[in-house]
Here is the input.
Amino acid sequence: MRSLNGAAVIVGAYEHPGRRLPGRTLAQVHREVVTGALADAGLGPEDVDGFFCDSSAPGYGAIDLMQYLGLRCTYTESGEMGGASYIAYVGHAAAAIAAGKCRVAVISLAGLPSHRRPPAPPETPSPAVAFQVNGYQGGYGPVADYALLARRHMHDFGTTPEQLAWVKVASSRHAAHNPNAFLTDVVTVDDVLGSPLIADPLHRLDCCVVTDGGGALVVVHPDVAASLGRTGAVLRGHGESHKTSFAGEVDLTYSANRRSGELAYAEAGVGPADIDYASLYDSFTITVLLALEDLGFCERGEGGRFVEDGGLVSGSGRLAVNTDGGGLSNNHPGNRGGMTKVIEAVRQLRGEAHPAVQVPGCRLALASGTGFRLGANHYSSTIILERTA
Amino acid sequence: MSEYYAAGLPTPSPEVDPETEPYWAAAERGELVLPHCQSCRRPFWYPRGFCPRCGGADLRWSVSDGYGTVHTYSVVRRAGGVWASKVPFVLALVTLDAGVTVQANVIDCSAEQLAIGLRVAAVFERAESTDLPVLRFAPLREPEVESP
Here is the structure.
């Protein structure tokens, strides 16, 4: 098989309902979301032979979680692509399934940032550490890196703070229909512009929420999916990429989403005009704007005009984006947004989103994510999913 | 009164890669040197012991005039750790005339001056004598001298 188009089906998806989980351990949250996703699929732990988590999982790679959960796997991965990991893992699981390495793969994410245990600095830092003034050691956080992008976008294309604010407004209108959302109040452009500047031009309400919780996916061989009799989401395309400052050449007008999107569209044999619903990474409002351009939903520089006046609101806008409220309003568990992006795409394809935000007849969905820092080094992953008959 | 982004920012001192010794030796003298690949005939950033374009290790560490232009910036108004007491301060990408783009703080700069396109020059700062000299940029105050 030379393509992952049709190689695997997402048959289970579960988002933890909690957003503040005092007293829980990371392992407990992993168990809750894995159990939830397997129940959604109609499978049990004894069926699982592939397991995927990220480097924040408790213990040494995946093995301590597999022991805790009672799994016996022939394929595991515990890598790190930041928030892009779980979208990429759908492709990795499909590749493993296509190669016969496993048949039922579980992808799990849990995070408890409200417990305020800052991650330990890496034992071996990046070789660039002495030259990265806002590196992840001793720096001042990711907002400033994204602010650099936003400022340049405004300079190059005339994008306005008001247009960026519309991304948050749309997410809040969606989150108002999600009883589990961390923020359920509908906000206005003025509310966003009136919130404190964190790293100008980005305000507090241009930033995603910080929440506990997590989610899990069950990705299976198409034969397994057929035996379950539950509507699923078949993988049609998958692409990954990364972008760095390389040798000192910096172009902030596009992200690695451009390449990962091209690869995913090519594998699926579709284009942006075919997509009924899109889950776009929304660590910050500018992240969504760039993703819309990079994934071909609008021309370069047109993101501001695309999102303004409710452009991303389901039903009335130009494209339904992040109908769960996204990371800006609903959930960004463990500071990693990719898992919830896939989960809402699966809900849309199954027709299980809230009726107020459900895209009628949703057949093709795209989920895209970036990991680490868009203004500096970052990963990207994009998948395209189709509703099974 | 206009907001002013002062010098005196923290200068954390990570471990230095021995391959970048020529850079740090020059920085101690207050000079910015850039590694130039002798095969590609171009400088690269960040410093390391080989060219990331071609892999070649034939490098010349040549002194740069340190002039550059602000490509983009942000005024950081909320930060943690040692940076918390320093807000507001400026993070920027500066494109050096030599052609590489560097992430650095801009200091000694007023809000009126700060803009994309602002001409800046390299300066080195260190908070403690045991810290590394950290590359920063300040607005050009003197008329620029054209290089021959």
Summary: Chain A has two domains: 9-114+212-232, 143-210+235-387.
